[in-house]
Write a structure and sequence with these properties.
Layout lengths: L3 E6 L1 E5 L2 E6 L6 H9 L10 E5 L2 E7 L2 E5 L7 E4 L3 E4 L6 E9 L14 E4 L2 E8 L6 H18 L1
Parallel strand pairs: 3-9, 9-11
Antiparallel strand pairs: 1-5, 2-3, 2-4, 5-6, 6-9, 7-8, 10-11
């Protein structure tokens, strides 16, 4: 199968080898949630969190996997509303394993059904919905990644 790539509007962060694509309209909280996630304490764990890309992400399918990378012009850059553009450590490439759609308060199910997916580059990936400005949103994102990592390691 030939390699396919697309540019996607979103922010991508990774914890260890698990990359997550945060999607939502402009101003929905993608960068804010990503920045809070990247700055969570991680005591006793070797799975550090890194930025992959902010605002635009290059997604490339290679076989049965999708990899996320930053466009060359914005590598290691993140826009923080009210502050401006900052430089952060980043990953050049990470395997995308989760999509997170950001929604306003009241639009996220309290107990969502399991196994919701969305398709990118003809591959289905797990999808969750979060309200990005909730105080616990970054912790919920970490919990979702940890759950996914455990499921992945059991397969």
């Amino acid at each position: 199968m030939p390699t396919k790539s697309i540019h996607c509007h979103g922010t991508c962060v990774a914890q260890g080898e698990v990359a997550v694509l945060l999607r939502g309209p402009s101003g929905s909280g993608k960068s804010d949630l990503a920045y809070r996630f990247l700055n969570l304490p991680n005591p006793g764990h070797s799975n550090f969190s890194h930025l992959v890309a902010d605002d635009q992400v290059i997604l490339t399918r290679q076989g049965g996997q999708i990899f996320a990378a930053p466009p060359p012009t914005i590598k290691g850059k993140m826009e923080l509303r009210g502050i401006g553009i900052i430089d952060l450590p980043y990953l050049e490439n990470a395997e995308l394993r989760l999509i997170v759609d950001l929604h306003p308060p009241g639009e996220v199910e309290r107990l969502p059904e399991r196994n919701i997916t969305d398709e990118i580059l003809d591959l289905k990936l797990p999808l969750i919905r979060l309200t990005p400005f909730e105080p616990s949103a970054a912790l919920k994102l970490r919990a979702a990644i940890n759950m996914l990592s455990k499921e992945f390691s059991h397969n």
